[in-house]
Amino acid sequence: MIRAIILGFAGVLLRTDDHGARAALDAQLGLPPGTVEHALHGTDLWIQAQLGRISSQAYWDGVAEMLRLKPGDIPALREAYFGGDRLDESLVDLIRELRAGGLRIALLSNATLDLTDRLEAFGIADLFDHVLVSARLGVMKPDPTAFRIALTALGMPAQDVLFVDNIPSHVEGARAVGMPAILFHPALDLRAELARHLAADLPR
Questions:
Q1: Residues pairing with 16 in the sheet
Q2: What's the CATH class of domain 4-15+87-198?
Q3: Three-class DSSP category at 182
Q4: CATH 3.40.50.1000: which residues of the chain?
Q5: Global pTM?
Q6: Shortest CA distance to 77 belongs to which of 39, 49, 125, 48?
Q7: pLDDT tens digits, one per residue of 130-146
């Protein structure tokens, strides 16, 4: 019986609906297309930050150096880069509904410790029973240890916890430790998928 749900954050609850601002940053800085995105999310620096091996400040200092920016330029860069991100309010409402119905909800995210501040800024810090961030855990999805830590936090066996994420390897990792899992994409009717797993219709 499913008694809890673990969700990813980026790509599930939060999605980049407008990529124009990111493309504009490359043009503004006179850089080839995709350079800014690679600097932020395509280097070992990003991996080390997600694993908590370097601080968020060190990460952003490194990004500034790669893009040949001054540290004081980073706040504006961050605002522009993440300007196209949108919270899925309908999914937030669904999660609140599920919690009210007695399900435990956890967030398991490959992210830096800045994620806590982002959840507060979006007003959804209270949405989860547990917020598990790779930078604090020292391990990232799809490492089995990440899923086992989440299960331990919930105090439940794998078969009782449903995992939802948009990365195929993460979904496969969850299934490898015995968790049922859903591969999320924006066109998915998640309510219907959850109803199937919960073996009960959810109110619409």
A1: 85
A2: alpha beta
A3: strand
A4: 4-15+87-198
A5: 0.92
A6: 39
A7: 999 999 999 999 999 99
